[in-house]
Amino acid sequence: MEGIVAxxxxxxxxxxxxxxxxxxxxxxxTWVVMAIIMVATLLLTRRLRPVPKGxxxxxxxxxxxxxxxxKDQLGHHYRTYxxxxxxxxxxxxxxxIVGIFDILPQGPAxxxxxxxxxxxxxxxxxxxxxxxxxxxxxxxxxxxxVAVGAEFRQRGVRGWLRSFYRPTPVSAFVKLLDYIVRPxxxxxxxxxxxxxxxxVMALMYMALPLFAPAAVGIYFDLFDGGxxxxxxVFLTMIYIxxxxxxxxxxxx
Amino acid sequence: xxxxxxxxxxxxxxxxxxxIGIGIATGKAAEGISRQPxxxxxxxxxxxxxxxxxxxxxxxxxxxxxxxLFVKWxx
Lengths: 252, 75
Hints:
The complex is a heterodimer of chains A (252) and B (75). Chain A has one domain (2-251). In chain A, a hairpin with a 2-residue loop joins strand 1 and strand 2 (18-24). Chain A has 252 residues and is mainly α. Chain A is built from eight helices and two strands. Chain B has a single domain, classed as F1F0 ATP synthase subunit C (F1FO ATP Synthase). Chain B has helices at 2-11, 15-35, 40-70. The relative contact order of chain B is 0.20. At the A-B interface, helix 7 and helix 8 of A face helix 3 of B.
């Protein structure tokens, strides 16, 4: 269980007395997910033509799905924010369901098959990178920055400052609290769900290694992962919508 | 370790509240859809959002339990 909760550190730097982990399993799995997304994007967008064919159809379906999703919440602002939200959605969906590919042979097995003792050190489990709190905290802070940036863009810095003491100066406290609570709840929700799912699946593999993990994995790996990715993007969208739309309502 | 394990178990009890909350939200959503099937899309989005928000309390309990179990306590 310790091996699931604590990240596996591959490289670290020493700052003073502390050793700071530099490359962990979350980083490597993120690289794998990034590589998959990049290759898929390159393959699907080759030879674009007015009448879509083959891979272009898939790409256009995904893009129009995301744009429709964003349009429902943000209205005519969707063009500005759909690329960011779509990127986060695609990354999170892939990163959250990467747990079903946890089939890599580990060090001792590799060393026995290839008769090479150097391979025994190899250890990489394809667990979702979002089970690492640092990854989700980073994504949540990105969401906060985008939401505040949207507010700047819409109202300017002065309008943003004015929103602190309007309608009453007491609301400044609530707004400041919001800036702390929102990223916290975003990151803890995703982190807790993914870590919980991974732990439940690990227990499942331990208790009933045959057939049962396949059935339970549909919920904990696929459904929960997709759901949490959607919820994360949906909440980010709500925050952006809140920052963007009040100005339109004020003018009316 | 014994008392820490009990403490972690108590922390996970927050799940009770989240379960009741999500149950109520989903029940009301089902009522709403049966009254107005044409609004099912909007009701669905609101339900997912409400479920995600009320689920957060259970997740906080889970995270607290993990902190109790896995953070190295001094002494």
